[in-house]
Amino acid sequence: MANQVKSDKDYSQYFQPPSLTDAKKRGKEEIAVHYDFTIPEDMQEFGKDKYYLIRTYGCQMNEHDTEVMKGLLEHMGYQTTEDKNQADVILLNTCAIRENAEDKVFGELGHLKALKAQKPGLVLGVCGCMSQEEAVVNRIMQKHAFVDLIFGTHNIHRLPTLLKDAYYNKEMVVEVWSKEGDIVENLPKKREGIRAWVNIMFGCDKFCTYCIVPYTRGKERSRRPQDVLAEVRDLARQGFQEITLLGQNVNAYGKDFEDITYSFADLMDDIRKIDVPRIRFTTSHPRDFDDRLIEVLGKRGNLVEHIHLPVQSGNTEVLKRMSRKYSRDHYLELARKIKEMLPDVVLTTDIIVGFPGETDEQFDETMSLYEKVGFDFAFTFIYSPREGTPAADMEDNVPMEVKKQRLYRLNELVNAHSKASNDKLLGQTVEVLVEGESKNNADVLAGRTRTNKLIHFTGSKELIGRMVEVEVTHAQTWILKGEIVQKPMKLSM
Ligand code: SF4
User: pTM here?
Assistant: First the structure.
């Protein structure tokens, strides 16, 4: 359903507030796959001598959407710039997962208002997950009327046409599809560096009660295996050293296929045979993480020993209220099976503290689960309600002071585990993919181990993009330091 609005008077009919009941009714409608994407002829030179800047917020899914938008813009002749004064198009690719992510975007819009006043020809656009929320679109239309273009997550491929409309229309162009779109293959992508992201599916059907994603990204749609494999093979040919498979719940990959039986484990087993040094995936859902996947990961090779497995809480009652659809025991058993297959695995996780109704005892179960599993690291968050989600209707009854204390205790534990697991690597030699110069010291190289740990060491810049072996000499909480012990293992692209 493509609804384009060019006036701020009649927009309300085009947006549906997120509705759990409606979203859950979404059925098994055919998702068409389009292979015939082209940039409209009249737009192919549209960006000649013009510059674009995209600011990306949020997750890797958004980072990858930005790569697609960059690809589209560069195929239209635009060039990239980091200087907002030079830019003819500025897009904010937004994140809706937490309130502070939204605050940042509104803050940025405030800064850009003056620039837009100085440079009326500038096209200022807002896209990504926030654009899928009715309240956000309302707020932009009412309070940030200088924005030229709003589009959502399902119609990125329409960017060339939307941009043209924004140039020629005096009023804000808004095109947000309330229903998820089909899958569009063959979109141009601008990838940089030695690591690449590949979407294997879109959307999420899990409906965790605190999460806005099933509404902003739509229902689960898997790309056809042959399309994913072709993209990975192509990236391997181009010399990419590391590929991360992306989806909100990669373990549900293939569940929506009606004509074939092909799961995430099958996909991993096929990708394992492609000549790319490292394959990662994110994000996993414990409920759908099955034994067959564990078996395939046990074959190792380019499948790395790092699994990010969000647990969110260590208490079964809280998990139930979150509608995570697994229990504490299920999670512990899953972690046990993974470790049995991969004793050296690094497990990392996401945890929310202070979910509605969480008692001290229930939080203590999160702490004890963290110890029991022996995570290496966690992204930790204080719960805050997202408008339109079922949890927003629950009483947010854990006082902020208590939430902060719990977060503090949890972070102390996370830090201690991280340091202890880094200490264990002292004296060991690890395989490192050299990513570039360290952010703070150009004389130092930065790379990552197979388990995704950051390591700094000195070496020639020629090593960037290559695999080297490094002996770990110092272990800090968040970073390792080391010395190269072997010549490059593999030439980069
Ligand atoms: S599985 Fe992840 S993306 Fe899907 S609803 Fe739950 S938290 Fe959100």
Answer: 0.90
